[in-house]
Each structure stands twice: as C-alpha cells, then as structure tokens.
Amino acid sequence: MKALITNRHLISRIVNLAFGKSLSSNGAEFKDVPIPTISDDEILVKVKAVALNPTDFKHIDAISPPSSIVGCDYAGEVTKVGKNAASVWKVGDRVAGAVHGGLYPDRGAFAEYLKTDSDLCWRIPAEIEDTAAATYGVSAVTAMHALNARLGLPWADDDQQNTPRTDPKDRPTILVYAGSTSAGLFTIQLAKAAGYTVVTTASPHSFDLVDKYGADAAFDYRDPSVVDKILANHPNISSAVDCISEGVSTDICGRVLRPNGGKIITLLPGAKSKYPGVESELVMSYTLFGRAFQWLPPVGPKFPALPEDRKALVRFYSSLPRLTATVKPPPVKLEGVGFDAILTGLDKLRAGKVSGAKLVVKMV
Ligand SMILES: NC(=O)c1ccc[n+]([C@@H]2O[C@H](COP(=O)([O-])OP(=O)(O)OC[C@H]3O[C@@H](n4cnc5c(N)ncnc54)[C@H](OP(=O)(O)O)[C@@H]3O)[C@@H](O)[C@H]2O)c1
Q1: Which keywords does this chain's UniProt record carry (predicted)?
Q2: Spans of the chain, pLDDT less than 70
Q3: By alpha-carbon position, which residue is closest to atom 17 of ligand 1?
C-alpha cells in the first residue's frame, strides 16, 4: 500500500528541534509498504479521510524515527476483523479514531490502510460524513484527556453528574486558553457538557467561533491587560487548559489562577506554572493508546503505558456515537483529495496559516 513514511535520522531531527523549525524539506515521502497485519484484538481499516494536526508535521520534522508511518486522525471502512473483535465490528462498518502515527513502521493514518485496537475507535453515525468524523481524533481525545481524565470534570456521557446547575453563579468556571484551536473547540464543548462556565482566549476574529461552540466569555490573548480583564469578570477560576502551551500562554493561565490556586493542563513539554499553589501537568494524547513509548527516540523521554488513560479513551470513543449532537466537529476545511493534499495541508499548518478550521483530506 502507499503511505507517508518518515526518513529523518537523529542529527537532522535534533537540529530541527533546536531551531524550532524544519531546516530542510522532505522529512517524509510516499512509499509502497506492506499492508499491516492485525492481531486478534485489532481491525484493519481502509482509510477514506484524514484530518491534519500540528503533531504530524512536528513528527516529520523532529520526532519520528525513520521508516514510521505518519498521521493520526482518520475515518474509513473496516476491511478485516481480528477474532476477538468480531462481536463488535464487521467488514464494511464505518469507523473513525486516532492512532499513534509517526512512531511505528506499521501503524499510521496517512496510508491506504491502517490498523487499530478494536476498542480504541468509534462507530460513525450514518448522518456524519467521513470528513467530519475524521476530526474527532487527537484534538477531541486531548480535550477529554485534559478535562475528564486529569482535571476530574464530569464526563459528557454521565447523565447523573451532569444535572444542569440552573443558577449560573453556582457553576464552576474554567479557563480554556486558545479556545479557537481544534483542541480548544472540543475542550470548550466538553467543559460546557460538564456544567462549567467557560472563559476562553482567542484572537478577536475568532470570538464568533468560540461563542458558537459554547464559550461564555472570550478575551483577546494579545491584549496586555488580558489577565486583569479576566480576573475583573471571573475572579474564581481554579482550573485551566492551555491549548497552545507556547510563549506567554502558561504564564497568563498561572496569573489567572494565582488568587485561588489550582491546576493548569498543558499540551507541550516545557510549559510550566511558576506560581506557588498553581500546579501544571502535561498531557500527551499518545498515553491514551495504552502502550509505553519514547518521544524523539532513541534520546527523548520515555512514557510508561498508562492503563487508566487507555480506559478513558475506550470510554470516550464508546460513548461518542451518542454525543455528536452536543460535541460538534470543528469547522471542516477540505484541503483536497489524495495523498499530495496531505503535504500541502501540513505546509499550511507548519506556516501557522490555519485559523479556526480543521484541515481534512479525502483519500481515493
Ligand atoms: N499534548 C497533546 O496531546 C496535544 C494534543 C493536541 C494538540 N497539541 C498541541 O496543541 C497545539 C494546538 O493544536 P491544535 O491542533 O488544536 O491547533 P490548531 O487548531 O492548528 O490551532 C490554530 C489556532 O491556534 C491559535 N494560535 C496560534 N498561535 C497562538 C498563540 N501564540 N496563542 C494563542 N493562540 C494561538 C490561532 O487562534 P486565533 O486565530 O484565534 O489567534 C489558530 O486559530 C499545537 O501545538 C499541538 O501540537 C498537543
């Protein structure tokens, strides 16, 4: 099958990491590789659509060992079913999810076929197109990881806990920094589903967007007095998800939480709270897949298998077919049809040219 395969050796990856950008192109190329073989617990999927994430180009530029298949988010059709998965899946079923792309020679979404654990994916409801279904990958599972698995907010599928708090002043408030990112739009929606008031930051051109996805208040993150403005209106915030985790973002979150203390979830290594009483914790969506791994192998930090994280992903994806009426996909922007559109889309993400939309590619 055809797949997008990484080819950078360690020195080139470390140089790119040190400079914060790719100094030479072609860190990945389309190659013919074997169709993955599946275990009894896995399914094989013919990929019909993929969604693009910043992590995809970061893996190509700096993180992935050579010979890895790139790509995480997909939607497609089941073409083979492992023995233990036969009670749940059959050939022809529509399926979507995220896989740990950019690490393995036989597992990644930017390919004609992919394999996945049969319980780490979700059944696409008939009314949802493949292009929209593909967007419920890394960004969506990260929102769940941050809010439900780490900050302990009630789950969207937990009807008992989600009894609406009728008086808005009784609702706890959370800060979602960078709410117009794909991760931010899912985080806003899951926090609202948990009964929280959501305060977010975004560029003013994104205020309508975050409002549409449920944010109660939006502030311009470039405004030098953004912290004072948030605190003047929302003085009791004690939890935050920093959906950008770069530059001053974690510092702004920390200053908003400082009066009450609390916890910030960050999404990139290196972003840390420096305020006493304000804890910060990095989440990596890859720990949801239940396998130990090393980031930037063979020299980067090692992450152990976290069975509780895996259980969280199983719960999220098994409930998602019932939740798509309240947890909407981000605005979908079709980048094109076919493998080449993956590369043009990744270049746009790399250049920071994508705002308020999820780039999606249809596969032929
Ligand atoms: N740890 C994990 O597991 C994990 C999971 C998902 C994502 N991430 C990381 O989280 C980040 C966001 O990913 P994504 O896919 O959600 O992003 P995305 O959808 O591509 O984000 C695009 C948006 O980012 C906003 N933005 C850009 N620079 C910003 C800045 N300095 N401060 C605030 N907002 C800024 C822009 O908003 P405006 O146009 O409104 O300015 C733009 O709309 C990436 O770095 C990604 O690698 C990590």
Answers
A1: Oxidoreductase
A2: 23-25, 160-166
A3: 181
